[in-house]
């Protein structure tokens, strides 16, 4: 019994000692574990993020294409803007350009006519490609003798080709083939081209009704002749009884067009003037204009890659079409002739048939 009491007493004493130690505190600091910051949001309050701070990467200088043109260049300007965008290049239109304005980022400069300081421009920026749309042609056919070389490429607008097509179209739309062209007296190749165009269609174009002459005809005047002078030439041609007439750029004027419309003649020209009278519009069959876009599209990959020294010929478009006169079938025939002209299988200056 006494032994049990001693054991109980020892247990009670030990408990008291332990309680006293707990109450007295421990001078050893405790370790508190803090959870790591998290990118999660708790109760609407965001915690710290472990993502690294963003760094700024300098952007590369973007290449640029400049079109030198007096205005927005219409559909051509829009098409060039699309080509530039597809190539990752900026695009802008300027009315003029000086050598000091061609910075390193300018990849390509397109000009719709040769500038007076073209040589200075190409020399000042050898890293830039230049493409010039210009009047051109074989010797004697007028136009520019500008040649492609180095960082200069050239698209030629050949007046002999347009004049050949004018002769072809004017002849196929003229009743009894009675067609004529009002052309400058120089170069003489343009007269040959117009006559060849008509005779490519009908050979010896002899009408059914008198007066029996070989069509088409060509009436000429010197450069700078006024509308009255061209009307005099037209009156001489009218003695052969005309049905259709081509008005070349040399003869073009509003007064002449109005006079031709008054004679009930079908007209083919290079520009239907804005604000033309109803009589002129009713007599107008088609406008023949140069289109450099197909040649530019073909050259574009090389030009964008910095390869120059190329030469190509502009195509031709017909617009302002009166389909009652220049019908779909006749347009198809004209397109076949144009394709041959552009691929070289038809020569606009071959010897005319007699």
How would you describe the overall organization of this protein?
The protein has ten helices and 14 strands. The protein is an alpha/beta fold. The chain folds into two domains: 64-158, 3-Layer(aba) Sandwich (Rossmann fold), CATH 3.40.50; 161-289 and 317-343, Response regulator (Rossmann fold). Helix 2 links the parallel strand 3 (64-68) and strand 4. Helix 4 packs parallel to helix 5 and helix 4 packs antiparallel against helix 10.
**Residue-averaged pLDDT, rounded?**
84
The strand count comes to 14
Classified by CATH, the class of the largest domain is Alpha Beta
> What is the spatial order of strands in the main beta sheet?
4-3-5-6-7-13
Order of helices and strands: HEEEHEEHEEHEHEHEHEHEHEEH
| Overall geometry | elongated
Sheet of most strands: 6 strands, parallel
Which features does this protein show?
354 residues, Rossmann fold, six-stranded parallel sheet, 10 helices, six-stranded mixed sheet, 2 domains, alpha/beta, 20% strand
Brief summary:
The protein is 36% helix and 20% strand.
Secondary structure elements and their pairing?
Elements: H1 2-24, E1 41-42, E2 45-46, E3 64-68, H2 74-86, E4 90-94, E5 106-111, H3 118-124, E6 129-136, E7 152-158, H4 159-173, E8 179-184, H5 189-202, E9 217-221, H6 227-238, E10 244-247, H7 254-262, E11 266-269, H8 278-283, E12 284-291, H9 293-304, E13 311-313, E14 315-319, H10 328-343
Parallel strand pairs: 3-4, 3-5, 5-6, 6-7, 7-13, 8-9, 8-10, 10-11, 11-12
Antiparallel strand pairs: 1-2, 12-14
């Amino acid at each position: 019994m006494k032994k049990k009491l001693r054991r109980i007493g020892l247990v009670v004493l030990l408990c008291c000692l332990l309680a006293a130690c707990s109450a007295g505190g421990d001078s050893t600091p405790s370790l508190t574990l803090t959870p790591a910051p998290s990118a999660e949001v708790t109760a609407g309050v965001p915690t710290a993020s472990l993502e690294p701070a963003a760094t700024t990467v300098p952007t590369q200088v973007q290449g640029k294409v400049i079109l030198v043109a007096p205005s927005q260049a219409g559909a051509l300007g829009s098409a060039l803007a699309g080509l530039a965008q597809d190539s990752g290049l900026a695009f802008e239109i300027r009315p003029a350009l000086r050598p000091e304005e061609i910075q390193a980022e300018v990849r390509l400069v397109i000009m719709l006519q040769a500038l007076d300081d073209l040589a200075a421009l190409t020399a000042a920026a050898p890293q830039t490609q230049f493409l010039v749309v210009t009047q051109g042609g074989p010797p004697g056919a007028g136009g520019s003798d500008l040649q492609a070389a180095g960082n200069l490429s050239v698209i030629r607008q050949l007046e002999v080709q347009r004049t050949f097509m004018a002769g072809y179209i004017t002849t196929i739309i003229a009743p009894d083939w009675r067609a004529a062209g009002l052309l400058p007296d120089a170069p003489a190749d343009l007269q040959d081209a117009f006559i060849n165009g008509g005779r490519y269609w009908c050979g010896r174009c002899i009408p059914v009704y008198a007066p029996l002459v070989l069509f088409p005809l060509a009436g000429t005047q010197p450069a700078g002749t006024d509308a009255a002078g061209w009307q005099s030439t037209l009156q001489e041609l009218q003695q052969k009884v005309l049905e259709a007439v081509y008005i070349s750029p040399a003869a073009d004027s509003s007064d002449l067009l109005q006079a031709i419309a008054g004679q009930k003649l079908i007209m083919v020209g290079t520009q239907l003037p804005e604000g033309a009278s109803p009589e002129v519009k009713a007599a107008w069959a088609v406008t023949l204009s140069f289109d450099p876009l197909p040649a530019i599209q073909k050259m574009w990959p090389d030009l964008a890659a910095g390869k120059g020294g190329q030469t190509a010929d502009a195509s031709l478009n017909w617009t302002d079409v009166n389909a009652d006169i220049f019908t779909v079938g006749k347009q198809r025939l004209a397109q076949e002739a144009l394709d041959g002209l552009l691929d070289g299988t038809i020569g606009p200056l071959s010897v005319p048939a007699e």
